[in-house]
Amino acid sequence: MTADTLVIPLGILELIPALTKEEAQKAFCSFAKSECCYSSGPATDGVITNMEHFNTYRYRLETYTESRKMEWTTKPYEGQPLNAFTQIVPNPWEIQVQVPAMFTDTTKDIEVPNTASVKPCDTCSASGHCQCTKCHGSKSIQCSMCTGAGKGAEEKVCVNCNGAGKVKCPDCSGQGTIVCNTCKGKQKLLMYIKLIVEWKNNVDDYIVEQSSGLEKKHLDAVTGKKLFKDTKFMVYPLNGFPEHNLAEASERMVREHHSKFSQKSRIMQQQQSVELIPIAKVTYRWQEKDYVYFVYGIESKVKAVDYPATCCCTII
Question: Would you say the pTM of this structure is higher than 0.90?
Answer without folding.
Answer: no
